Amino acid sequence: MANPPQVETVTSGADKAKLAAALLLLIGALVAYYGLAKQGALVQWASLIVLLAAAVGAFFLSEHGKSLIAYGRDSVREVKKVVWPTRKEATQMTGYVFAFVVVMALFLWMTDKTLEWVLYDLILGWKR
What residue ranges are annotated as transmembrane (predicted)? Predict the structure, then answer.
């Protein structure tokens, strides 16, 4: 029996550099936000947003980011294949679920009261 081919994830140095740059930009965004507190809220938020956007951009340029985008596209494609129930079918199934819950609640209540009566009144003789 032949062995199945092994799948290896190969990351290049450039890809690692892109991920490191994204991480450094993320840390830089946090440092800039707290470090520029005396400059005013506008400067704080602008630096945070610009550096976060740069970090996200650097991440999406890496292989991990590209595979995340491909995963998202595949997920959307799979959701489009789903056959969704009609409004009538969804309403009927919801009604069935509610009816089952009510029947089960009544069954459990009757079981609880029956066991309470058997244990407390018949076996222990406690009358309330």
Answer: 19-36, 42-61, 93-111
What DSSP letter does each residue of 1-60 carry, written as one string? -PPPPPP-----HHHHHHHHHHHHHHHHHHHHHHHTGGG-HHHHHHHHHHHHHHHHHHHH
Q: Categorise residue 26: left if φ over 0, alpha if ψ from -120 to 50, beta otherwise.
A: alpha
**pLDDT tens column, 77-104:** 999 999 999 999 999 999 999 999 999 9
Average pLDDT, the chain: 91
Residue with tokens 């199934």: 93
- Contact, 52 vs 23, CB < 8 A? no
The span from the CA of 31 to the CA of 19, in Å, is 18
Q: At 128, is the secondary structure helix, strand, or coil?
A: coil
Rg of the chain over all Cα atoms, to the nearest angstrom:
30
Q: Which amino acid belongs to residue 37? A: A
Statement: residue 62 has pLDDT above 70: yes
